[in-house]
Amino acid sequence: MAGLVTIFGGSGFIGRHVVQILAKQGWVIRVAVRKPSKARFLQPLGDVGQITPMYAKIQDSARVAELVGGADLVINLTGILYESGRQTFEAVHHKGAEAVAKACADQGVGALVQMSALGADPKGEADYARTKGAGEAAVRAAFPKAAIVRPSIVFGPEDSFFNRFAEMSQFSPFLPLIGGGQTQYQPVYVGDVARAIVTCGTDPNCAGETYELGGPKVYRFKELLELMLKETRRKRRLVSLSFGMADFIARFAQLAPVPPLTRDQVRLLRHDNVVSPEAKGLADLGISPTLVESVLPTYLDQYRIGGRFKDPAKSPS
Ligand SMILES: NC(=O)c1ccc[n+]([C@@H]2O[C@H](COP(=O)([O-])OP(=O)(O)OC[C@H]3O[C@@H](n4cnc5c(N)ncnc54)[C@H](OP(=O)(O)O)[C@@H]3O)[C@@H](O)[C@H]2O)c1
Q1: Shortest CA distance to 162 belongs to which of 215, 126, 85?
Q2: Residues lining ligand 1, CB < 6 A?
Q3: Domains of the chain, with CATH numbers?
């Protein structure tokens, strides 16, 4: 049953996969972002006029309400990894999510999916986790039927985790293991996350539920970097960095326009990021999770010396 869907943050890494699935299902799609010109690449994923990028800042509740108007389904994927100017965690993750949920309630929208993150906790140590938790609570209060989705690290061709470290390994002889690289993650494939979001928005059984999304295996941070180095066929030293030292470095690093590391990210790294055993997850949505090892070779090969077309058996490190 397709209709009209508004997707806040639909031009991002996860959003583009969600748009693709909904377009195939025949939905008319409004993609609400700050820079609609940067979302035009989505339009060929649908028929002429099916996908329309539209301007909206999640901080502007009047504009949010306009873009929610008439929608059968609303999906909120907006999120940031570091603060910059008016792009604060509080404004985007908490107040923005609340504005979307209130607009959905006021206008009688059928279903809402709110994107959160594993570790979301209104009392969390890191601002990212704390505001994601406050956002969840605000969404539940305004629109109790909302489905909330909390993934671990999401991987896929345009991800910001494996690509970032693979890029770093191209010019740096070593890679940092903050806290010794012992933090645990359960990476989940972007295609599985997108299917989960669409199911949450279209299956009435998901209303009011929270889903934690993780892949089939748990890895330590160090193991993830080792996997990346194996796929890019590079040998790099993994150097342990205490949390205290990482925090010290982040004080300066976070002053950069696009910070490579922030103090808040160091706080996040202190906590494991795995699905809790009692939580509902991908299996409850009928999705069998994809292994990291089966997808990484399809996009990390571009970082090998000589690129993806060179015979790997002959390439040096
Ligand atoms: N990727 C992961 O590993 C991961 C893990 C856990 C949870 N999540 C959550 O999943 C969601 C999507 O993540 P992603 O990786 O796809 O992020 P992304 O690639 O950075 O995309 C974020 C999207 O939000 C939009 N946006 C940012 N600030 C906005 C604002 N103030 N108003 C309106 N739109 C705004 C961006 O478009 P413009 O910049 O053009 O506005 C973009 O479309 C986020 O909520 C994130 O916290 C992601």
Answers
A1: 215
A2: 8-9, 11-15, 33-35, 38, 56-59, 77-80, 87, 92, 115, 117, 151, 153-154
A3: 4-154+188-213 (3.40.50.720)
How is 101-114 classified by DSSP, letter by letter? HHHHHHTT-SEEEE
Instruction: Supply the pLDDT for residue 307.
Output: 73
Question: Helix (H, G, I), strand (E, B), or coil: what is residue 89?
Answer: helix
Residue 185 banded pLDDT, cuts 50, 70, 90: very high
Q: Which residue matches tokens 């910059």?
A: 84
Choice from 29, 34, 98 to test ligand 1 binding pocket (greatest atom count within 8 A of CB): 34
pLDDT tops 50 at residue 210 = yes
pTM of the model as a whole? 0.96
- Token digits for 288? 């069998």
Q: Taking a C-beta distance cutoff of 8 angstroms, is the pair 266, 250 a contact?
A: yes
Closest to 10 measured CA to CA, from 162, 92, 43: 43
Nearest Cα residue to atom 23 of ligand 1: 9
Quote the pLDDT of residue 310: 61
130 to 46, 124, 127, 216: CA distances (angstroms): 37, 5, 5, 27
Rounded to the nearest angstrom, the distance between the alpha carbon of 239 and the centre of ligand 1 is 30
CA of 203 to the centre of ligand 1 (A): 24
The DSSP element (H or E) to which 29 belongs, if any, is: strand 28-33
Q: What is the mean pLDDT of residues 144-152?
A: 98
Atom of ligand 1 nearest to the CA of 153: 3
Residue 143 Cα to ligand 1 midpoint, Å, equals 21
Give pLDDT, residue 311: 54
